[in-house]
Amino acid sequence: MKFLQLTFAAATLTDLCSAGEQGVSTDLKRHIVGSPRPSRRRASATLPADLSPMLDEFVRENGLVGIAAFAASSDAICAVGCAGNLSATVPGIFPSHSPPVDLWSSPWHGGSLTKSMTASLAALLIKDEKIALEWETTLGEVFPEAKYTPYENVTLEQLSNHRGGFRKDVIEKPEDMDQLSGGTLVQQRRGVALFGFTTDPAVAPGKGFIYSDFGYTILGSMMEQRTGAAWENLITERLFRPLGMDSAYFGCPDTLHAPTGHFFDKNTGGLLPMHPGPGGWCGCAVNYTETCFCDIPPAGGPAGNVYMQLGDYIRYYQWHLAGDREDGGDSASRRDLLSAEEFRRLHKPSGSANESEMFPLSGYGNGWAMREVTDLFGEHDVLWHTGSSQFMWSAEVYVAPQSDRVLFVASNSMFSKTGLQVSFDSVFADMMSSVNKTCDGTMIDDLDKSRDPGMHDECPTEILGSFDAEGNTQSDAWKNRLQLLPALLSSFFAAKYLLQ
């Protein structure tokens, strides 16, 4: 059943896509509501194209659960739509989610799309002259423990480009989880860094390419060590709030009123939803016989645990889309954050084509892979990335500065009901064909979007406050939940091999 039939009359779109600011709890507002955004209404605009019929067909043909997508220019929404369900209906455990739920104001997990956000945060901190941080800052300068190791001279920029030499994942065997148990998130990330310095390089540090969540976690720790603030606080205060990305948060959306991640269970031959647990990162499989993870551990946040509503993905990618334009795009505030030159450095690829199996493209830089595409504007390079988490979420984005377009797709399942990994290529092709060369669509702020009051209904209020300097909320209850981590070790590795 389709969640939302977008009719794209201006008033109707606002009604469907907004729940009303008055419905947001005080506790939630304290975290997600930033400075008010100025109105940028234009006298006339073409309403966005409706992608929902195309997406509905894609869901049915590929056996997905739910999907959402948009196409935008640097200052307008060209097309938007959604289809499917919040979760697979399992009698007695998950509700059937009827009547339809508004997917515009539902949060979608971005997985590794977080990496470009972490790299953008690094650029913002480097611009701040009060912070002793540069692209050339080395691990040896930040961590005394890195000296006299193969990683001593690895720079921040090399970590951001996956050239630090660290293996892909922090956790390769059960005892590796010791780095993520106990202490604050800042302490855990520092522990990950110190552990990393004792591991053998997977490739030549500073030279070879290997896609590394390990390296991005250490990158987050570098920023924490130089600022004295947790990565969660830094990215919220320096990136999310200035751009008006008020719904951005960390972990899995921890409510059944949001899209639920699904994994393919070979035993049942279908997609099973994951019930979000404490803090939105650990929970139970739908049959409640195994404990597994709906997200990476919180300490790995810099590598990929951000989620947000569609409107805030639009804000973020419009910022990058307009970033390397000399005029800074439609919003003057964008230029206050980073200059065109700074954006060009963020978007500059490192390395050459066919360097890795994961990104056999024309290079990788700062959370972006470079890819050549052909669209209505001809052949040109675009910024591209995918995101997923624990095989249960999937997202993909194309940012094409030359054609002033961003295309985005997210789903709450990475695999089809037959167990095949789903490709969004046909969705992107259909989106591009439906978006004209001129996009004078509705502006994001003109939708007067507010927050879904049910977004965190099942999330205890004590974990909705801002993070403290060590990366934790003020609540002892939240800290106590983190102490449950060692008890989940055996279950985590049992769940990890469900797909085998």
Automatic annotation (TrEMBL):
<keyword id="KW-0732">Signal</keyword>
<dbReference type="InterPro" id="IPR050491">
    <property type="entry name" value="AmpC-like"/>
</dbReference>
<feature type="domain" description="Beta-lactamase-related">
    <location>
        <begin position="108"/>
        <end position="416"/>
    </location>
</feature>
<dbReference type="Pfam" id="PF00144">
    <property type="entry name" value="Beta-lactamase"/>
</dbReference>
<dbReference type="InterPro" id="IPR012338">
    <property type="entry name" value="Beta-lactam/transpept-like"/>
</dbReference>
<protein>
    <recommendedName>
        <fullName>Beta-lactamase-related domain-containing protein</fullName>
    </recommendedName>
</protein>
<dbReference type="InterPro" id="IPR001466">
    <property type="entry name" value="Beta-lactam-related"/>
</dbReference>
<feature type="signal peptide">
    <location>
        <begin position="1"/>
        <end position="19"/>
    </location>
</feature>
